[in-house]
Amino acid sequence: MKVSLCNCTLAAVIGALTGLLVTPTLQAQPAPEVTLTRLDCGNLPTPIAAEEFSDTYAYHGLQVPFTFSCYLIRHGSDYMIWDSGNPAGSAPGAPKVSLLELLGQLKLRPDQIKYLGISHYHHDHIGQASSFPKSTLLIGKRDWDEVSAAEPPRGVDPATVALWRASFAPWISGGGKVEALTGDKDVFDDGTVVMLNTPGHTPGHHSLLVRLKRMGNVLLTGDLAHLRETYESNGVPAWNFNRADTLASLDRFKQIAKNLRATVIIQHDARDVGKLPVFPNSAD
Ligand SMILES: [Zn+2]
């Protein structure tokens, strides 16, 4: 009886102390609001042959409208850009309005962009990267190792090497901060925005998971798939870096989509543009 009384008292004291310590912390940590905005990064003037994205002679005769998508993610008072598209200009596929001008319409300056996340090193995803020299660059390590190599990687044409060096100059030679990712990256350390390691299209390719309160979970493909048809039937372009890795990444991505009941947005497929609100509106 004596022992029991003693234990009850001790438990009550510990409970009271724990309550005192924990309650204020819980009250002080509201979850930051997360929003997702699509930024137009160009469009091809005519539809593209889907057959280009298959190494199995699939999709013969199918023509699909092709777009270039960039995204702005707001996490509380922090901002991230996902992919930087083609450079603005008059070339086919180039956006008429630059990312900086689009951000200006949202009253945002480039130095407010904390993170620049790049799905992979192809020209249509890195074209305006150098507009954000103060941002921390998040990119797959195996892509970064190629674009930042002192000696150009074997087989890469000089024009591509020149584009890499110009696009990534703020981080290669300008002292900008880089996180070269060897796996997934939980960008804000709370699971709301995660770069998913999905190699295959390029060695360090990543896709992006954004978890929104109202819209729910959204998965941005990067170039894991380019079109709805290739996503559905695991089409792999002949020019991908690694076919087996692409298929493994598609398998992982589709399981995540299923388990999280996510909205999948294929960044290059113009038919997926309408899955998000029209700029300047955002999903939340
Ligand atoms: Zn692309």
Molecular structure report:
The protein folds into 2 domains: 1-30; 35-275, Ribonuclease Z/Hydroxyacylglutathione hydrolase-like (Metallo-beta-lactamase, Chain A). The chain contains 8 helices and 13 strands. It has helices at residues 2-27, 99-105, 123-126, 141-147, 158-167, 169-172, 228-232, 243-259, and strands at 34-43, 48-49, 63-64, 67-75, 78-82, 113-117, 136-140, 178-181, 185-186, 193-197, 206-212, 216-220, 263-265. By secondary structure, the protein is an alpha/beta fold. The structure holds zinc ion (ZN). Zinc ion (ZN) is lined by residues 122, 124-125, 223, 268.
Largest sheet: 6 strands, mixed
- Distance N to C terminus: 57 Å
CATH architecture call of the largest domain: 4-Layer Sandwich
**CATH topology (level 3) name of the largest domain:** Metallo-beta-lactamase, Chain A
Quick overview of this protein structure:
With 284 residues, this protein is of the alpha/beta class. The chain has helices at residues 2-27, 99-105, 123-126, 141-147, 158-167, 169-172, 228-232, 243-259, and strands spanning 34-43, 48-49, 63-64, 67-75, 78-82, 113-117, 136-140, 178-181, 185-186, 193-197, 206-212, 216-220, 263-265. It folds into two domains: 1-30; 35-275, Ribonuclease Z/Hydroxyacylglutathione hydrolase-like (Metallo-beta-lactamase, Chain A).
